[in-house]
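Fill in residues.
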């Protein structure tokens, strides 16, 4: 069986949902394929309980639907899930779930994209054809755990942050958190609050800001240059947190918003982790020589500084990787070897032969919204020119 449509969207996370909604408003036929059994699976299945949006709600809304005026400034996980479900219903987005894409290639004879997907419920391969293809699987396709000698021998529990719910079961356990981004810092805080003896591997310099500082920065960026915004935020951060070098934490040489734009790495929004680090309730291993874990032998972990310690569990908050390169053919150079778009121009969301990508701008939900609107507008213009 072959299904045909005008636009085929791969991925029913916020990027895919937003793109489909924008197309629906323009009455452009589209289909959404999703490998999981629900939309927004990252939020519904792979997000820890205490997670909330790290930016104020006005920077996180999807196209054409603001958050309710009485919603909190920083939306909690379950509030955002409700918002996404309402969004799907309101804009009549109907993903085909349990479809794992096996290949997508451009057929030059027909001028269409041909996609083969496995229907994991029926165990059948399905064929889809579309004039336009939108890759909306995003940056977080699959959890990444670095290769560490002996990790397979670890006799405790090993998990990626996407499998972490809360710290209740780790009470009185010795837990090592690897990774110093927002997830790692927040999970370490949650573990410590739950009574776990928590250690944290900080593998690179990191900026710490408060929610208010980030909100201020987002507003200032509308009016002044990023370097001036960074100077203001660094001054506020230094006043708030002081010098953290003695605790194993260094600041990057570049400013927080410059780094976000250049590398996609966000500053850490402190939820109370720094206070616990200062109080020595969370121990920090600074791993300037990567990886900071040298090897693992049973429950014992040897660090590159020579220390050896035993742990009951390891949580890897080491980010995600894109899986696009496994199934997308004929991308025309839109994606690099890491499965991320080659950035550097204003139309990073557009490739050749009707290929687009949404949610890869390393700009969070704000970037997703911009991508979805730009893609639907571009497709609408192309179709109108063909009439």
């Amino acid at each position: 069986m072959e299904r045909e449509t005008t636009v085929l969207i791969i991925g029913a996370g916020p990027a895919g949902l937003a793109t489909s909604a924008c197309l629906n408003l323009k009455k452009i036929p589209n289909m959404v394929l999703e490998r999981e059994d629900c939309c927004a699976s990252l939020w519904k299945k792979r997000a820890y309980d205490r997670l909330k949006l790290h930016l104020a709600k006005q920077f996180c809304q999807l196209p054409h639907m603001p958050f309710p005026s009485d919603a909190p400034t920083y939306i909690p996980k379950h509030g955002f899930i409700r918002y996404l479900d309402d969004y799907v219903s309101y804009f009549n987005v109907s993903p085909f779930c349990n479809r794992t894409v096996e290949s997508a290639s451009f057929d030059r004879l027909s001028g269409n994209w041909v996609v083969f997907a496995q229907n994991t419920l029926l165990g059948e391969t399905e064929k889809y054809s579309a004039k336009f293809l939108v890759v909306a699987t995003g940056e977080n396709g699959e959890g990444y755990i670095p290769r560490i000698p002996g990790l397979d021998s670890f006799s405790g529990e090993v998990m990626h942050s996407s499998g972490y719910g809360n710290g209740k079961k780790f009470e009185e356990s010795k837990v090592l958190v690897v990774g110093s981004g927002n997830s790692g810092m927040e999970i370490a805080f949650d573990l410590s609050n739950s009574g776990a003896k928590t250690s944290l591997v900080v593998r690179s310099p990191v900026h710490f800001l408060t929610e208010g500082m980030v909100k201020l920065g987002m507003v200032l960026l509308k009016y002044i240059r990023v370097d001036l915004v960074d100077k203001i935020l660094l001054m506020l951060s230094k006043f708030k947190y002081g010098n953290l070098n003695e605790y194993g934490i260094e600041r990057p040489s570049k400013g927080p918003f410059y780094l976000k734009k250049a590398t996609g790495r966000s500053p850490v929004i402190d939820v109370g982790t720094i206070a616990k680090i200062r109080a020595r309730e969370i121990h920090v291993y600074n791993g300037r020589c990567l990886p900071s874990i040298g090897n693992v032998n049973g429950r014992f972990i040897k660090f590159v500084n020579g220390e050896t310690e035993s742990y009951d569990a390891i949580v890897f908050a080491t980010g995600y990787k894109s899986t696009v390169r496994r199934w997308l053919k004929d991308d025309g150079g839109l994606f690099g070897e890491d499965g991320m778009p080659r950035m550097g121009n204003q139309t990073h969301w557009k490739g050749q032969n009707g290929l687009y990508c949404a949610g890869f701008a390393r700009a969070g939900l704000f970037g997703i919204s911009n991508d979805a609107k730009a893609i639907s507008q571009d497709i609408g213009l192309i179709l109108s020119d063909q009439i």
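Residues 364-385 form the longest helix (22 residues).
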